[in-house]
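Async update (no meeting this week)

Hi team, since we skipped the sync, here's where things stand on the single-chain job. The sequence we agreed to prioritize is pasted below, unchanged from the tracker. I ran it this morning and attached the output directly underneath so nobody has to dig for it. Comments welcome in thread, and please keep replies under the output.
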Amino acid sequence: MGTLAPTTFNTMKAFTFLLLVGLVCGQDWTCDECAEGGEALGAFASSETAIPGQVDILLAEVCPQAPEPEFCMENLPGFWAVLSPIIFPIHFSHICDDMEECTPPPPPTKTSVPNCGA
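Output:
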């Protein structure tokens, strides 16, 4: 009684902590296990439940230092909601790159943008 339900940020911290503990304790991960962990972490970090916690941190830490803080406060949440699902899965796909027995994933390929006059 009297305890607060964990917030999304606390859930993210706990998940990250458990993942790091697993990395330290289970140093004999196979490439497949490592890739699966990286994929799960990328999926979690870019999920609809994780993004609001990230936005809260960004609004508190980034926007006050922005040249136009009000513009940042208004536009950063939507910007991050679009950007996070692109960044995190790719970022965490490289979690196994330092394992000698693992082959790193190929670099991202160019994507075409419809109706782009480039």
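Quick observations from my side:
Residues 1-5 have pLDDT under 50 and may be disordered.
The helical segments are 8-25, 31-45, 51-61, 69-92.
Reply here if anything looks off.
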